[in-house]
Amino acid sequence: MTARGLAKRFGTTTALAGVDVDLDGGRSLAVMGPSGSGKSTLLHCLAGILVPDAGTVTLRGRAVGALGDRERSLLRRRHYGFVFQFGQLLSELPAIENIALPSMLLGANRKQATALAGQWMHSLGLAGMEQRRPGELSGGQAQRVAVARALITGPAVVFADEPTGALDQATGAEVMRVLTETTRAAGAALVVVTHDATVAGWCDESIAMRDGTVVDRGVLR
Amino acid sequence: MRAVLALAPGLHRAGGKDTQLTTALGVAAFAVTTALTLSVVGGLLGFVGREAQPQTAYQAEWSDIYVILAWTAVVLLGVPLLSLGGAAARLGVARRDARLATLRLLGVTPREVVGLTLVETSGQGLVGAALGVLLYGLMLPLWALVPFQGSSFTVGELWVGWTVVLVALLAVPLLAAVSGAVSLRRVVLSPLGVARRERPKKLSVVRLLVAVVGVGTFMVISTALGAFGAAAFAFLVGGLALAFAALNVVGPWVLGLLARIQLRRASTPARLLAARRLLDDPRAAWRVVGGLGLAGFVAGALAIVPSLAASSTDDPDQQLLLTDLSTGALLTLVIAFVLAAVSAGVAQAASVLDRRREYALQHLAGVPAELLDEVRRREVLGPLLLVTVGSTAASVLMFAPWLGLTGVSSPGGMVMLAVCLTGGLLLVVGAVESTRPLLRSVLRDPVVRAD
Predict the structure, then answer these.
(1) What is the DSSP string of A152-172?
(2) Subunit contact A82:B446, Cβ cutoff 8 A
(3) Fewest CB atoms within 10 Å of the CB: B92, B145, B187, B363?
């Protein structure tokens, strides 16, 4: 995935002012910066949620900005996975069905999707918790379910917005280990938005943002 | 306590646009409830007045039956009216629950949480009741156009009087506060109960037993008292209220059963989500469709009327009574269906607002808005069909000892039932679909606020 010269304004506020990003499959990028630095807007533009005022985002040679709203929704469903700080799990569905849902949305039948979800739960250390509701899981367990849910469709890119924001440090580290290892193993690129340097330390590369621009770039591993 | 209660207006403002919209919906629902309740009571008082001071020979002879029929309409509409009032009180309670659960975690006492709820909900109830009185005043000239007993009522005859208005202004906020406080029991009992949603408790089969006993009692009363003629009506009306309440008890249990069947058969994401949502909270689903279920019950009871009206009689008094019976039945049905549609619309709008973060995140992750629409439609349609047909059948069965099966065996009754139920279904579906723009506006907001 590449982004060139991304710019975005909200009224008189400049959220992004010419940001470039390059990311290969299997690599992870931490986007750091204080509140209001533009890191969430960057994530939304990269993920096709917002259309930038200027600049381009290209995924596997396809210009994301040229797609209509419906096509971008489809792109997000097929090629992207998301892990948010909290709240992305549906409270009525047991863990296994939360994970199976994106696969069913892409056409898998319930049996296939549930079986695949079961495999993901097993590999992420969640075996035995299949029928638990999100409210019956700990914060760390819920985020591991979210990671499995993001990866079940084999996405090209996983976007994580403050994935450990609601967790204590030890649980947060465990979630980051699972997130980075599983996305790397799946060959997916990972974009993590965070203001926490410890969280960023789990990624291969990092960019630091301030006032909508990239002020620092680093290769961590 | 006083310091916490002083927070109420600030907390309300802090909720922003959503809270204002939820409040507006709640106030509107209280207003509709108050206006229609006053209209129905006004009708009853109108007939009581004519019984006390008859103007014509017909009124002198027949007014007592009209009063009994008016009482029947009050009972038939009582439960849907209370349901809508309850829905209004619970409106957006999940939002408020989350906020109040956080306050509990911060150390606010259960009494203070209840106090905050009382202040917020009874305030909405009072404003709604005041607007309802105004709405009732505006509707009076319309009600006065409907002819009964050979002449239309005057506005004065249908005016409930200032005492009743005062009672409404006190009772609506009080009922709102009680309903709101009851729905917050979980927060009071456990601060974590709402902050972290857990597996809902299964509804007990006792509900079914209560309903069977309620319906059975009505049937026994109506059979036993049939021989005593008009004097038995008072008991009958009481029995009817009991049976009606019984249906309200069994409704959520039946919906839970339907959800389990749907879940087993669900093969698509929309079916799976709709079934899970229904199973998660059948009471909430009943609040959406229950109004129409109760309206279906009313329709089942009134299906007898066309066949009665069609029966040829040379007696002009009998003919007038039967015509008025048809008019009254139709009015009762229209009010019941309007109440059902308003209940459904209010409950769906509240559900969209309560789930706004969930909807927005699902959409960001590529879930199409059409799927969310389909889930909402399925969530309502299955229960709606079951509840409408079930309630109508229950009502025909319950009234069978008293009225026989004329209502459903005569073409007139069948046509009336079919038209009413189809119309009612379309009204409720329309009310649910009318919340689409609200969902779209929720989905358009890309910045998902952490609640």
Answers:
(1) TT--SEEEEESTTTTS-HHHH
(2) no
(3) B145
* End-to-end Cα, chain B, rounded Å: 25
A161: β partners: A193
> What ipTM is given for this predicted complex?
0.88
- Each residue of B147-205: pLDDT tens digit? 898 888 899 999 999 999 999 999 988 888 887 777 665 544 444 444 445 555 666 66
Among A10-14, B91-95, B99-103, B370-374, the range scoring the smallest mean pLDDT is B91-95
Give which of A75, A33, A28 is closest to A192, Cα–Cα: A28
pLDDT tens, position by position, B329-344:
888 888 888 888 888 8
DSSP E strands, A33-187: 54-59, 62-63, 80-83, 157-161
Q: Report whether B99 contacts B117 (CB < 8 A).
A: no
Residue A71 has pLDDT above 80, yes or no: yes
The helix (H) or strand (E) run that includes residue B60 is: helix B57-90
Are residues B267 and A109, on separate chains, in Cβ contact within 8 Å?
A: yes
Q: How many CB atoms lie within 10 A of CB A13?
A: 12
State residue B340's pLDDT score: 81
Number of domains within chain A: 1
Report how far residue A82's alpha carbon sits from residue B289's, in angstroms, rounded to the nearest whole number: 35
A106 SS3 class:
coil
The winner for highest mean pLDDT among B252-266, B348-362, B424-438 is B252-266
Q: Give residue A12's domain range.
A: 2-219
Q: Which residues pair with B122 in a beta bridge?
A: none
Residue B24 vs residue A15, higher pLDDT: A15
A47: CB partners within 8 A, 6+ apart? A76, A80, A82, A157, A159, B364
pLDDT in tens, B284-341: 788 777 777 777 777 777 777 766 666 666 788 888 888 888 788 888 888 888 888 8
Q: How far is CA B82 from the centre of its chain?
A: 6
CB B177 within 8 A of CB B125: yes
- A191 - beta bridge partners? A29, A159
User: Is B295 within 8 Å of B404 (Cβ atoms)?
Assistant: no
**Over the Cα atoms of chain B, what is R_g?**
23
Kindly state the DSSP code that residue A49 receives in the 8-state scheme. Answer: S
Please tell me whether residue A35 adopts helix, strand or coil conformation.
Answer: coil
Burial of A163 (0-12, 13-18, 19+ CB in 10 A): buried
CA distance A193 to B80: 50
Paired residues of A210 in beta bridges: A213
Q: What is the CATH number of the domain that holds A71?
A: 3.40.50.300
Pick from A80, A109, A133: which is nearest to B198 by CB?
A133
CA A55 to chain centre: 21
For the stretch A88-104, pLDDT in tens is 888 889 999 999 999 99
Give the residue from B47, B31, B78 showing the smallest Cα distance to B297.
B78
Could you give the CA distance from residue A186 to residue A170 in angstroms, rounded to a whole number?
Answer: 24
Q: Any chain B CB within 8 A of the CB of A133?
A: yes
The angle at the Cα of B101, spanning B98 to B105, to the nearest 5 degrees, equals 140
Q: Which residues of A touch B276 (CB under 8 A)?
A: 90, 92-93, 97
Give the pLDDT score at B115.
Answer: 77
In whole angstroms, how large is the CA radius of gyration of chain A? 17
Residue B433, pLDDT score: 87
A window 23-42, beta carbon within 8 A of B: 40
Predicted local distance difference test score (pLDDT) of residue B177: 82
Cβ contacts (< 8 Å) between B202 and chain A: which residues? none
Nearest residue on chain A to B281, judged by CA atoms?
A92
